[in-house]
C-alpha cells in the first residue's frame, strides 16, 4: 500500500510540475543586444537570426494557440539613432510588409531610452508595433528595437490587446 501511495504522489508531482512550468513567465534576456522582456508561459521561440556583421538580430515567437506572433528586431549602432528615421525605414521596408498605420503614435520617454508605438491594420492583420531607441551619448553602442505583435483580424480582441500591453510593458533596453 505504501509503494502505491508513493507512486501516486510522484505522478502527481510530475504532472503538477509540468503544468506549473507551462504557466510560468519566461524571461528573454539578450546580453549582446541589451534588452529584456517577459513572455507568458507556453510561448515558443520559432526563429532567431543574426547578421554576419553581428550588428542586428531578429527573433520570432508564437503564442500557444498559434494566433499571435511576436517579432523582435534589434540593431547595434555606433551613435544615437533618430527614432523617427528608424520608424520610417522599417515602415517602408518591403520585406517586413507592415500594414498601414491606424491612428497616431503614443510616445514615452524613459531618460536612457524612449519608445513610440502605434497600431497597424489592413484587411488581414492587426499589428501593434513598439519602437525603442537608446540615447546614451557616452556609451560605445546605442540600440534600436522593434517589438511587433502580429494577429489576424479575426483573432484581435480585448484579451489579445491586454496581453500585448502586458508583454510590451516588460520590454526594457538594458544598455548603460
Task: Walk me through the structure.
The chain is α+β, with helices and mostly antiparallel strands. The chain has one domain: Mog1/PsbP, alpha/beta/alpha sandwich (Protein Transport Mog1p, Chain A, 3-Layer(aba) Sandwich). Helices cover 24% and strands 43% of the residues. The protein has 3 helices and 10 strands, in the order H-E-E-E-E-E-H-E-E-E-E-H-E. It has helices at residues 2-23, 83-92, 158-168, and strands at residues 26-30, 35-39, 44-50, 56-62, 68-77, 101-109, 113-121, 125-134, 142-152, 172-173. The chain has a 7-stranded antiparallel β-sheet, sandwiched between helices. It has a 3-stranded antiparallel β-sheet with strand order 1-2-10, with no helix packed on it. The longest helix is centred in the N-terminal third of the chain and has 22 residues, at 2-23. The radius of gyration is 19 Å and the shape is globular.
Quick description:
This protein is of the alpha+beta class.
Present the secondary structure layout.
Blueprint: H1 2-23, E1 26-30, E2 35-39, E3 44-50, E4 56-62, E5 68-77, H2 83-92, E6 101-109, E7 113-121, E8 125-134, E9 142-152, H3 158-168, E10 172-173
Antiparallel strand pairs: 1-2, 2-10, 3-4, 4-5, 5-9, 6-7, 7-8, 8-9
What's the CATH class, please? Alpha Beta
User: What's the SSE pattern?
Assistant: HEEEEEHEEEEHE
Strand content: 35-45%
What's the architecture, going by CATH? 3-Layer(aba) Sandwich
- CATH homologous superfamily label: Mog1/PsbP, alpha/beta/alpha sandwich
Amino acid at each position: 500500500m505504501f509503494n502505491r501511495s508513493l507512486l501516486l504522489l510522484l505522478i502527481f508531482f510530475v504532472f503538477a510540475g509540468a503544468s506549473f512550468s507551462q504557466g510560468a513567465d519566461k524571461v528573454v534576456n539578450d546580453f549582446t543586444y541589451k534588452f529584456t522582456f517577459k513572455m507568458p508561459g507556453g510561448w515558443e521561440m520559432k526563429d532567431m537570426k543574426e547578421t554576419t556583421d553581428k550588428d542586428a538580430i531578429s527573433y520570432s515567437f508564437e503564442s500557444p494557440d498559434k494566433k499571435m506572433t511576436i517579432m523582435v528586431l534589434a540593431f547595434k549602432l555606433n551613435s544615437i539613432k533618430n527614432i523617427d528615421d528608424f520608424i520610417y525605414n522599417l515602415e517602408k521596408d518591403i520585406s517586413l510588409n507592415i500594414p498601414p498605420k491606424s491612428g497616431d503614435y503614443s510616445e514615452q520617454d524613459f531618460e536612457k531610452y524612449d519608445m513610440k508605438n502605434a497600431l497597424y491594420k489592413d484587411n488581414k492583420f492587426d499589428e501593434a508595433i513598439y519602437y525603442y531607441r537608446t540615447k546614451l551619448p557616452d556609451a560605445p553602442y546605442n540600440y534600436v528595437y522593434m517589438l511587433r505583435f502580429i494577429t489576424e483580424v479575426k483573432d484581435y480582441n480585448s484579451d489579445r490587446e491586454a496581453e500585448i500591453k502586458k508583454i510590451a510593458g516588460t520590454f526594457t533596453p538594458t544598455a548603460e
